[in-house]
Amino acid sequence: MSLLGIDVGTSGCKAVTFSEEGRQLAVAYEEYDYQHPYPEWAELDTHQVWQKVKDTIKKAVQESAGDPVRALSVSSLGEAVVPVSFNRQILGPSILNFDIRGAEYLNEINEKMSPEYLYRINGNTPGNHYSLTKLLWLKQHQPELYAETDRFLHWGGFVSFMLGADPVVDYTLANRTLLFDLDRKDWSDELLGLVNFERDKLPPTVASGTIIGNVASPIADELGLAAGIPIISGGHDQSCNSVGCGVTEPGHAMYGMGTFLCMVPVFNQRPEPALMIAQGLCTEHHVVPGAFVSFIYNQGGSLVKWFRDTFAAAERQQCAANGTDIYNLLTAEMPTGLSRVLALPHFTTTGPPEFIEDSCGVLAGLHLDTPRGEILKGLIESMTFYLRECYEALPATIVISDFRAAGGGSKSDAWMQISADILGQPLQRPIVNEAGALGAAIIAGAGSGIFPSIQAGVDQMVRPGRTFYPSPAMQSRYDERYQRYRRLWPLMADYLRDLAASA
After folding, report:
1. Domain residue spans in the chain?
2. 321: which residues sit within 8 A by CB, 6+ positions away?
């Protein structure tokens, strides 16, 4: 018997089956691109992504047919929502968090609630990357779609709903709306009233690990699943990634190396809001009961994907044709020492502490003899510098003594070593790399009663792998380069803001 973890991200989806001992049985992956209907808009074609999710489930289930799935759960991207009807019809696309739509509502939101006021209820400060501003935009600019929509579901709830579950949202995803009361674990009537948004457009909230329905017969037949297997509420991908690499207790932190580069520290008590607001840090529920997490992030794999598509389009097609990994080819071209290229990773809205929208990316240090491998390494180094700067500014109440890596980037020994050298901390890579899907599978096992708790599932299914230790010599060289990186944005801020405004 097996557990199915489904991981739906911004640029791709996976379905992975695992044995109850944590052995990976089958994995299926599909990539997709977000759409740009207009400049600075970014959305997912919901029909296309749902079809790819179904394709991955069907393939993974077929490849592990000897171990039938007993339960499933979904890990998903955070803020984007899908408009649906009660009869499970998809009504429109899904606006992504870096889409410019909704920014016009931030002034009104800030007038009605101070950062401190919102943080004490929700654990976040206002920003256009959350669901709320997108929902307000839809309500005003697409009133017919808004009126037709019965529920706006986050992707974890949407995929579960389409498989047969009730329309719900778990606490970790609900908090990405700005409308969730962190302590009451429900929608905040106070916040809903301030922004004049209807509660009945949002689904009921549930804890991660809750049985929310069963796989319906028609979709079960289509995907090769047994009808009636339990669907368990999952969580935000960064929290599921954390579970999948064993990050469940204070002092541990997940180092996610996916579309976003993201540190996720765990703590048991809510820190003082002023300390968190100063660094632009959220406080949100972990999928583990009683625990909280925060997210320190910026662009990561999205920049590597941009590099791949810009500098290696032909090689990507060749690798796809012969079944080889394009990323292995590209990382093999990186120099052994430091790159001469320094990047400012502002290719889209940045993460904390400032969430800078009015900037743009920079590649500095280019020469006529600069090979593409050096550009790639400069991007990876600089995106890691960004997180180091945030890491060093963490409030003293959040302590990280143990990093566990997850995500596609953690498959690369070179990228792992760069990260350890720049952060000056060991990074452990679990044996099973598909941490988001594994975390969802562990939650499915706990919610269906196979494990007595999520922690018991972690103890059973997560296996530590190689640890990458910082090289003292490289760490010293990176310390010097890091100081140069820190000067780049202050030196260029005014120019880049003018450039972004004129684009």
Report:
1. 2-245, 299-397+487-502
2. none
Select from 299, 289, 48, 8 the least CA-distant residue to 154: 8
CA dihedral 183, 184, 190, 191 (to 10 degrees): 60
Containing 52, the helix (H) or strand (E) segment is helix 46-63
Residue the block writes with tokens 């606490």: 171
Which CA distances in Å does 325 have to 30, 36, 227, 411, 500? 14, 27, 36, 11, 35
Tokens of 217: 């017969």
Mean pLDDT by 10 residues, the chain (503 residues): 95 95 95 92 97 98 94 97 98 95 95 93 92 98 98 98 98 97 97 96 98 97 97 96 95 91 93 91 94 94 94 93 92 95 94 90 96 97 97 91 91 96 96 93 98 97 95 97 97 92 81
Strand, helix or coil for residue 457 = helix
| Global pTM value | 0.90
Number of Cβ within a 10 Å radius of residue 185: 14
CA atoms of 426 and 164, how far apart (whole Å): 43
First-to-final CA distance of the chain: 55
At the top level of CATH, which class does the domain 2-245 belong to?
alpha beta
CA gap 437, 483 in Å, rounded: 37
Judge whether 292 and 284 are in contact, CB under 8 Å.
Answer: yes
In the structure encoding, which two tokens stand for residue 19, read together? Answer: 């044995």
Structure confidence by residue, pLDDT tens digits, 99-139:
999 999 999 999 999 999 999 999 998 989 899 999 999 99
Q: Look up residue 483 and give its amino acid.
A: Q
Which tokens go with 385?
């510098």
Q: How far apart are CA 410 and CA 168, in angstroms?
A: 32
HEC assignment per residue over 291-321: CEECCEEEECHHHHHHHHHHHCHHHHHHHHH
In 3D, which of 374, 453, 443 has the Cα closest to residue 414?
374
* 2-245 and 299-397+487-502 agree in CATH topology: yes
Side-chain-facing half-sphere of 151: CA atoms under 13 Å: 20
Paired sense of beta strands 400-406 and 427-430, if any: parallel
Instruction: Name the CA radius of gyration of the chain, rounded.
Output: 22
- Which residues of 56-196 form beta strands (DSSP E)? 69-76, 81-84, 94-95, 151-154, 169-170, 180-181, 186-187
Closest CA to 131 of 79, 171, 173, 93: 79
Q: Which fold has domain 299-397+487-502?
A: Nucleotidyltransferase; domain 5 (3.30.420)
